[in-house]
# Entry
Amino acid sequence: MSLRLGLFLLAALGVVILTDSASISTHIVGGDQADIADFPYQVSVRLETYMLLHICGGSIYAPRVVITAAHCIKGRYASYIRIVAGQNSIADLEEQGVKVSKLIPHAGYNKKTYVNDIGLIITREPLEYSALVQPIAVALEAPPSGAQAVVSGWGKRAEDDEALPAMLRAVELQIIEKSTCGAQYLTKDYTVTDEMLCAGYLEGGKDTCNGDSGGPLAVDGVLVGVVSWGVGCGREGFPGVYTSVNSHIDWIEEQAEAYL
# Structure
């Protein structure tokens, strides 16, 4: 099983990824290059080292609040995290990003089962809204099976890729019946819980992958899922697994209230 998480070293010809698990992944597989103008809620979560390294995606909830995956921020320090919004590229070496004051991973997050894989990032200063930087509404109800969804991010384009694409990509997916998805994952001894949802295609070919973790899964412009985990990337029979936003709406509102 693989998280859609990685630590990315930008190089002249690409972005090299070092994943924390060889089997679980997160990236855009089978998609196309996208424009941030069509996904203005998408942000890049960066780690400050000698430069800003893309580690995850996120979604703008409010000027100072970004929704992401708990596994992206659990165990990290807010002082080393930056948020970059309104940009198509993660290869912008001069980008400084917006500093972060607090990281709030869900207290119930379990790194073995991936339950409650959701978190909030609180920025020091509010993001400046523009045509390229906008919040996204959050789902109050679960999307129906068969609904058309779209996921965006800077994840790998194939499971065996060594480099991330520098430019934002997106792919259209389908919400998969949870019982069908869950039965498939049980064959690998993984459990898709009630607070998760699946999206992709049973025949494979389109999915998220390493680097997409924490990013948005949207249906009709509403955030329904957070990129979380899966078996490989785009594998037949194993659609991606996402944290269900509507299952955590009370937690999101409660944790974000002080920063609105």
Observations:
- The first strand starts at residue 2 and ends at 3.
- The domain at 40-135+249-257 is CATH 2.40.10.10 (Thrombin, subunit H).
- The first helix runs from residue 70 to 73.
- The chain has two domains: 40-135+249-257, 136-246.
